[in-house]
Amino acid sequence: MYLRNDHAEKSLPVLRNLVRENPLGQFTTVIASPNFPLVQCSHIPFVLDVDDESSETELGVLRAHMARANPQAKAIIEEIKSRQAAGDTSRTLQQDVLVMFTSPVHHYVTPKFYTTTKPATAKVVPTWNYAAVQVYGKATFYIDSGAEETSAFLDRQIDALSSFNEEVTMGYTGQNGRPSAWKVADAPEPYINIMKKNIIGLEIRIEHMGGKFKMSQETGDGDSDGVIKGFKDLGSEVGAKMAGIVEERRELKRQQKAGRQSE
User: Fold this and answer.
1) Which CATH superfamily is domain 8-106+129-216 in?
2) Per residue in 101-118, pLDDT tens?
3) Cα separation, 230 vs 113, whole angstroms
4) 103-106-107 Cα angle (round to 5)
5) Range 95-134 burial, b when 16+ CB lie within 10 A, else e
6) What single DSSP character describes residue 187?
7) Of the residues 16, 87, 137, 210, which has the fewest C-beta atoms closer than 10 A?
8) At a CB cut-off of 8 Å and minimum separation 6, what does 149 contact?
9) Domain limits of the chain?
10) Please, are residues 24 and 38 in contact by the beta-carbon 8 Å criterion?
11) pLDDT single digits (tens) 51-94
C-alpha cells in the first residue's frame, strides 16, 4: 500500500476500529503448488483480538475460518501436509499472508470539485477517495477436523465472530426493545459439529498494520471546500458521508500541523 504522509493513518486504535467496522477482509496467500494458482484470495470475516485497546504498539491477532472446499484452503492443506510428510510439524505458513480491509465509504472525485485550482490552471485530474487497512502476518492453520485443538479453536472463533456481529453489527443486544442475539448454542450441536468438519481455522499473528484515509488532504482549503460541497450536492447518502469524512480528515490534518508547529 502506498502511504503518502498526507493520507497515512498511524494510530493503531483508529486502524483497529476500521477493521472492526469492516470485518470482511480480503485474505491473500502465496503458495507454490502444482495444483492451484500461486496467488489466491478469499473474502473472509475476521475477529481482531488485542489485550489493550488503547495501546499504540500492540498489533494483535486476527482469527477466522474458511470453507475446506475453498481452493485456497485446499492449497493451504496441501502445503501443510506436504511439509508434515517431510517431518516439519509446523502449521504456520513460511510466507507472510496479507489481509486487506476497506471502508464501504469511497467515491470517485471529479476535477470539477477543485473550485480553486481548476479555474486557475486547469491542472487537475480525477482521483478516488477511500479508506483501507492492510495487515501482514504469519498464519497458523487448524486443519485436522478430528483434533481436539482444532475443535476448541473453531468453537471459540465461531462463537466470538457470531457474538460480535450479532451484537455489534446487527445491534441485537436484547436491550431497549432490540431483539436478543442469535447464539451458536441455538443450533443443534450435531449440526454444528458437521459444519465444523467442513471448515478450517486460521490465526494470523500480525507483524505489520498500515492504513490510509485518502480523503483529499493533499489539496488546499479552496479545493477541499469544493470537494466537500461537491459531495454534499450529490444528494446521496454516500455523498453526505464522504463530505463528512473529508471535512473530518482536513480538520485532523490542521490539528496535527498546529501541534507540530507548537513543539
Assistant:
1) Electron Transport, Fmn-binding Protein; Chain A (2.30.110.10)
2) 999 999 999 999 999 999
3) 6
4) 170
5) ebbbbebbbebbbebeeebbbbbbeeeeebeebebbbbbb
6) S
7) 87
8) 142
9) 8-106+129-216
10) no
11) 998 888 999 999 999 999 999 999 999 999 999 999 999 999 99
